[in-house]
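To start, an entry.
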Amino acid sequence: MKKRTYAYSLLPLLLAVTVVSLKAQDYTPLVIEQATWQIIAINGNVYTPFGYTIEGDTTIESVAYKKVYYLDLYPDTFSVDYVIEDRWLFGALREDTAARKVYTIIFDETWGGFCTIGSEFELYDFSKSIGDTISNCLTSPDIEYPYIIDAIDQEEVWGLNRTHIQTSQYNIEESLIEGIGYSGGLFVEALYLPSTADWGVFLYDYCVGAAADCGLLSGTVSEEVVPAVRVFPNPVRQGEPLWLEKPEGIAADHTVELVDAMGRVCIRQAYTPAEEPYLSTTGLAPGFYVLQFRSQGGQLLQVEKVIIE
């Protein structure tokens, strides 16, 4: 709905300008230098980690873009630190922050999605309202039913308060997250996230910074052995405790975080040595979660995938 402003006096005009200005300030952009998405595709016991990073500027037909690189990551499992095994120029991105829209040109002809290669298209529209339809090459255009927005809210995810544009029609549960993309991350198609199946594409980490600051290595994997915490039962039934068995030698000043598929921290608690700790799953929705063990300084020490049934 367009907002009409009439020039009856200077005060309403100033108020209108203020409202528009505040709205623009509330927007969290996606196209940021050194923004990095680490993503994992899971199919049973097969893990395929990959990612994207924004780095550098380019001009195409007199239009300014940011370059985006595809990251081929190793090892093929859940890991604390991934190695960038290879990287190549994937495409270019630009953003109209006033309109809250992101546009892209994909260069990589090996990409297997529905999107057009070599010409610009609208990648994300964060200006959508409840009742609007989301339909482009990332929403599987061969599916008969459209993605219709039924809820919009603000939630803290990946370190910032971001707008979540949500749809749940036709057994499809998905969120378009401001500054991130769909819940799976940049260039990942909108998918139904299974609540119990060990399958899906998940955003493992989002970070703005140099590769090393985002936990990405450019050499070999460290062979330093960190005592692993045993997590059981896994899968765990909703409402039952998720037990954490401490190995000998683990420090007492660790923090445990349970993060859902949207990147939201659902549980954060101290890892106490006094008794065998556990996490309560009461009130948590069935689905895929990532359990993170961090040092007191915030360093990521261990990650485990958890399924709540």
User: Anything to note?
Assistant: The chain is about 5% helix and 45% strand. Residues 290 and 305 are 5 Å apart (CA to CA). The first helix runs from residue 10 to 26. Helices lie at 10-26.
